[in-house]
Amino acid sequence: MDGTFKIVGEPFTREGQLMTPTDTFAFCFTLSIIHVIACFGLFVLLPWVVDEYKIGLTKKILHISAVIFLYSNVMMNFWKVLTTDTSSGSAVLPIFLQPGWKFCASCEANSPPRAFHCHICRHCVLKRDHHCPFTGNCIGNTNYRFYIQMIFYFWVASVYANIMTFAFTWSILGEFSLYNLFRLVLPLLSCLLGQTDLYTFAVCVLSIMSIVGCMLLVALLSFHLGNVVRGQTTFERSHRVHTYGLGLEQNIKSVFGERWRYAWLFPSINSPLPGDGITFLTKESLEKPKDL
Ligand SMILES: [Zn+2]
Ligand SMILES: [Zn+2]
């Protein structure tokens, strides 16, 4: 019937989308930390490595290329997470509730399976995972790939920075001793006691932040890769919903798209998702033909 459908949603715009104080703080923090690490790596660590290890031009170019590649990947994925439309956009949604669908009072429209309303983004997010304050946007069907890639490249960058920072920090602190370990682990106290100058304090803080950041990123990455492997969102994982687990390859495709084998290399690589984010294949629907 023609009358059973209506068009829901406007073309995607960030106008009217709220940024809570938490979002604003987390968003600014993320952007600041990315640029502090990139600048520190490029303008402080790299010149030191070049001097200390007397590395040649080729290796120097390789290091600079690595920093630029990691930086652009983190920033491009960040941009994609921020600007990708996570709503149903101009999709045609049914007026009458269908199995698995629910009515969203805020949108005044029926909401497809796996979609949830976000009161910060002010729309229903398809296959919603969570609202990410660090990027100021919801993570859902269309930008989960970019979110995971952003975490991945941020983690690689932090491992890279940690390797270089470790040697650099100890070259400033001096030989390994309990006293210098105290200066590294408790830089503020050490500075207040007059045992550390401001420059060493800043280097120690960055070093500690790199180590802690690296550990947090690996935990976050493991968690979300676990979601991908299982074919679940965070909500489905916590509620033990296994309906949409279609096997490893299909689960990966549902996040990274048809070109998943190399789509993770750069966010601009086009990799269409297998579904529309509104209707989903289920484990049961795949198993049915085998029973016939
Ligand atoms: Zn809604
Ligand atoms: Zn949101």
Task: Give an overview in words.
By secondary structure, the protein is mainly alpha-helical. It has one domain (2-284). Helices cover 56% and strands 8% of the residues. It is built from ten helices and eight strands. The strands form four sheets. Strands 1-2 form a two-stranded antiparallel ribbon. It has a two-stranded antiparallel ribbon with strand order 3-4. Helix 2 crosses helix 3 (144-173). The longest helix has 33 residues, at 21-53. It is elongated, with a radius of gyration of 23 Å. The two termini are 31 Å apart. Residues 1-15 have low confidence and may be disordered. Bound molecules: zinc ion (ZN) (2 copies). Residues 104, 106-107, 111, 117, 123-124 line the site of one zinc ion.
Short description:
The protein is mainly alpha-helical and 292 residues long. 56% of the residues lie in helices and 8% in strands. It has one domain (2-284).
What is the terminal separation in angstroms? 31 Å
SS elements, strand count:
8
* Structural class computed from helices and strand pairing: mainly alpha
Instruction: Identify low-pLDDT runs.
Output: 1-15
The profile of the biggest β sheet is: 2 strands, antiparallel
Mean pLDDT, all residues:
87
Radius of gyration: 23 Å
Roughly what fraction of the amino acids lie in strands? 5-15%
Listed once per kind, the bound small molecules are: zinc ion
Count, helices: 10
- State the shape: elongated
Total domains:
1
Oligomer: single chain
Which series of helices and strands comes N to C?
EHHEEEEEEEHHHHHHHH
Physical arrangement of strands within the biggest beta sheet = 1-2
- Share in helix: 55-70%
